[in-house]
Amino acid sequence: MWAQAKALMLSFLELMQHSMTSIGIGENFAWGLxxxxxxxxxxxxxxxxxxxxxxxxxxxxxxxxQIKTLQDKYGDDKEALNREMADFYKNNKVNPASGCLPLLxxxxxxxxxxxxxxxxxxxxxxxxxxxFGVNLGGSVLTTVADALRLVDESGxxxxxEQLGFVMVFLSSFTNLGLLFSNxxxxxxxxxxxxIIAFLTWYQQHLSSSGNPQMAMMNWFMPLFLxxxxxxxxxxxxxxxxxxxxxxxxxxxxxxxxxxxxxxxKPALFQEKPKTK
Length: 276
Fold this sequence. Notes:
Structural class: mainly alpha
Number of strands: 2
Oligomer: single chain
Largest sheet: 2 strands, antiparallel
Strand order of the largest sheet: 1-2
Helix content: over 70%
Shape: elongated
């Protein structure tokens, strides 16, 4: 099943790439456009789910004061609290669990694309494919290693799967002259990674704006994802970056629309229910 899915995605990317080269677009540029086109198709297909997710998240954020009121009011009666919270979510058309579904659906697509690009890097035709300077088959780690010409004791290039963050970082620090003399080999992949880190931070900021409890996550998630991105192929970073940019534009529209809808809030009584 997984192998068939990878073959299907590879066939789609190759079809898009060949279609673009047939109208005069360069082979390298066509690979990048094929990945962007795939991203757009995925975002369009995911739009209904993403719309519900973002709307629900924004409403949850706007309703936090009222949720806190309910928790204070029924804090000593868990059964009544659960019942009131269920009614509250239903009346406001909010589903607290809806935020995870689009991510869970996108994850297999993300992993599939990684697998397809990883397999493509093993072919000679894809070894030097770039899109605006970004090596689509190479990660930040592998492009930096290429710039440093890292080899093992026998003088053979160290395989990509054996490259580690600490190894490449220490080698970069001790060979700064060589690193910056070959800056064109790695700088575009690194710049794309920084852009993704910023987009992740900004999207997280939009999602949790006004919620001080999420302040730490605003910084933790971008840093964590940036660390992961060091070993991801440039093609996957391109997919992630374009998807994040489209997500931010979509989210800004949802934030504006939801803010208008939530201006009128139902009143909640602060008093706790009287016990008999």
